[in-house]
Amino acid sequence: MAGILSVRDRTSPPERVSDPKVFARQLWLTLDDATDPKQAIEIEARLAAYQTYMEDTGLFTKEEIRPINETRMRARWKLGQLLAEVERGTGPGRGKKVSGLSTSFRAFLKKIGLQKDTALEAQRIGTLPDPELIKAFERARADDRLLYFTDLIRVARPWWKKESRTQREQALGAKIMALPEQKFGVILEDFEWDFETFSRITGMDRHASNHYPTAAEAHTPEEIVERTKERASVAADDSALFMWVPNPFLSTGIKVLELRGYRYVTNWAWTKDGLGTGYWNRETHELLLLGIKGNLPCPAMGEQWPSSKHGERREHSQKPDWQYELIEAYFPTLPKIELNARSGRAGWVSWGNEAPEAA
After folding, report:
1. Phi and psi angles of residue 59, each rounded to the nearest 5 degrees, phi first
2. What are the backbone angles phi and psi of residue 246, rounded to the nearest 5°?
3. Which residue stretches of 237-344 are H helix?
4. For residues 241 and 260, is the Cβ–Cβ distance under 8 A?
5. What is the Cα–Cα distance from 86 to 267, expressed in whole angstroms?
6. Which residue stretches of the chain are H helix?
7. I need a surface site. Which of 13, 186, 249, 266 has the fewest CB within 10 A?
8. Would you list the DSSP string of 151-166?
9. What single-letter DSSP state applies at residue 182?
């Protein structure tokens, strides 16, 4: 059986309709209650046949055709939503990304006579929130034109991109959780940086080692990687490493990422009140680097955080709580570990001298 696009081959001649507006309204209400993709397919086919008839005869105005056209667009939107529900139920997790349907879902499409490309197009349109669909109708009316499926795909692009990214992140989280040894898709690290002073005798009054043990024997990237190789081994092949780096150690931090197999992609600046220490300047910010290893999805457009966030200066080495909020927004389902944690957080594994003991 052909797909929806071949409506002339799939439907009988248009039915007798006394009032196209009433006809469209009745089918709109039927769509609202539809629970089976075949219902949406049948309704769209009827509407497509009738719209073609209205356009071919030349006896109807654009405003008379519009209710049929809008309801037809809504039928394709509803079909996409129903197909997404089916795919989530028959495929792994919440379904596959657009480029790879699950075998069971392919079989379902074949059973109902729906072409794969049409199904994928409908699912993309189906990610559009209902209020945005209505806005698309309103814009078309204001522009005095009818809508096409390509219009809705373009409007829905931010939403189906976001949905695709969500599915990829969830599939990766499930993959990591299924590994025989515990691995993590997100590592948050606050390394025990050791600031070298002019004198280990007279220059240690404000040194970090007064607050916690520092890596006095590890200053080069290679030395740091060697010191941390055991804790770093918990990283999954596909993982994100968020690393706090004081400004003087920026180049070292990026090199550490690279030596561990990560690709540096960006950073966030935590800007603080007051002045800190420093040789060339008095620091007022600290950097959180991000390195990516393997195949991790970046945030959907519009979901990215700004590159800096201001907050009060906290106790020595204590980081802002927004670090967790940022990471959880970007990777909600990936297993997470914090290295050199000072406190616990629900959903995270904590490691370090000051980390709370596991319950």
Report:
1. -95, 0
2. -65, 150
3. 250-259, 322-330
4. yes
5. 39
6. 7-10, 20-33, 37-57, 62-90, 103-112, 116-126, 130-142, 149-177, 221-227, 229-232, 250-259, 322-330
7. 13
8. HHHHHHHHHHHHHHHH
9. -
Which pLDDT score, from 0 to 100, does residue 334 have?
95
Using DSSP, how many helices (H) and how many strands (E) does the chain show? Answer: 12, 7
User: Do 31 and 71 touch, CB atoms closer than 8 A?
Assistant: yes
Reported pTM: 0.69
User: How many CB atoms are closer than 10 A to CB 132?
Assistant: 14
| Residue whose C-alpha is closest to residue 341's, from 187, 162, 137, 128 | 187
* Model confidence pLDDT, tens digit, residues 265-324: 999 999 988 877 777 888 889 999 999 999 999 888 888 999 999 988 767 678 899 999
Q: Which residue has the tokens 């090199």?
A: 255
Residue 282: exposure state from Cβ atoms within 10 A (0-12, 13-18, ≥19): exposed
What is the pLDDT confidence band of residue 145, given thresholds at 50, 70 and 90? very high
Cα–Cα dist 286/179, whole Å = 35
pLDDT value at residue 196: 64
CA dihedral 256, 205, 342, 294 (to 10 degrees): -10
pLDDT digits (tens, 9 = 90+) for 112-125: 999 999 999 999 99
Q: Are 48 and 118 in contact (CB under 8 A)?
A: no
Q: Are strands 263-272 and 285-293 parallel, antiparallel or unpaired?
A: antiparallel
